[in-house]
């Protein structure tokens, strides 16, 4: 019974199966012979295979753009593929490929907590993808992370409130983080306040300290009236409190944060701005020994110092950037990728090369995408996944072989079928019919 399924494939030009030529004395009237061949299975068991061979030519094909594909690889693909019996069982195939301009290579790193880190962000997860970009040493990095350093709005160093005429010189920083939908956590570390006295501190409506306006809240009750700090004998105050002003974390961005003195006069101010943290490829080949940033001094400064991410209030972040590290794509394989936060190194993963699929399909045409069908096999499980993959370099070139692939069909039964090459995400980018 024919079985087929849609899998994810790979790219390029194809040449298919060549059967071994046997001594003419071994052929019967049908120009075939049968020999007993054994195949060892996991655990040491073996099976007997009736391996039939004849003098037929190899099946070959040149790939063209997959019907309907209009992506950025459509004008670049070329290459050849040859499919042969593997030399074990009759229905085992081997695919040899030489691809040019296929899916450009990608490095991927899963993300987990940095070794030894046990702070607030141990649930960090997600992926980082590294690709070749412009220039010999250019890299493009895409990231999709969750559970990272939660978003933080910070005043930076507090400044004297415009027009303040008092004697205090309040300094320090105030930060705001998200607690839940509209609740915030305010953390403060200030000095120069009036010793042993209590005063207020609040987010204000205004977007500048010159025009701070009133408290920033929605609803009938001003929650900020209860927000207070108490200085010690040296005028230092450190602490935090939760407050629900009715406005979510993101809507507090850019607003003025005002610190009052004990007589309720506005004494200091800062503007709440999003904070960013770094992510970098490191020298080390493991997360246990990540080392420093991986770059070569093409300039006097480390280019990774300019790379940052800005999470939302829940610690999620999606983005991409381009960097010239001085090292070409291939030299970044196997290196540690580290994500930083306010508590230092919080996440890490090792960059590994991604591979993509290529398969014989049920269809017998490449002119109509709807007729190409799924993978061509006659076994209980699809043998094409993950047994036939190609691993491209940074330019999309790949050469190698895959197999044996036990499809349940001998070489002759694959003649006339479509061979499909896939790219990232399973996109079908190349196709050719085996002859």
In words, what does this structure look like?
The chain has 435 residues and is mostly beta strands. It has helices at 369-372, 384-387, and strands at 14-15, 33-40, 46-53, 59-62, 64-65, 78-85, 92-100, 106-110, 112-113, 125-132, 138-146, 152-154, 159-160, 171-178, 183-191, 198-203, 228-230, 237-244, 256-260, 266-271, 273-274, 277-281, 308-309, 317-324, 336-341, 344-350, 352-353, 356-360, 389-390, 398-406, 418-422, 428-433. A 5-stranded antiparallel beta sheet has the order 1-4-6-7-30, with no helix packed on it. A 5-stranded antiparallel beta sheet has the order 5-32-31-28-29. A 5-stranded antiparallel beta sheet has the order 24-11-10-8-27, with no helix packed on it. The protein folds into 3 domains: 14-102 and 356-433, Sandwich (Immunoglobulin-like); 106-150 and 276-353, Superoxide dismutase, copper/zinc binding domain (Immunoglobulin-like, Sandwich); 152-274, Immunoglobulin-like.
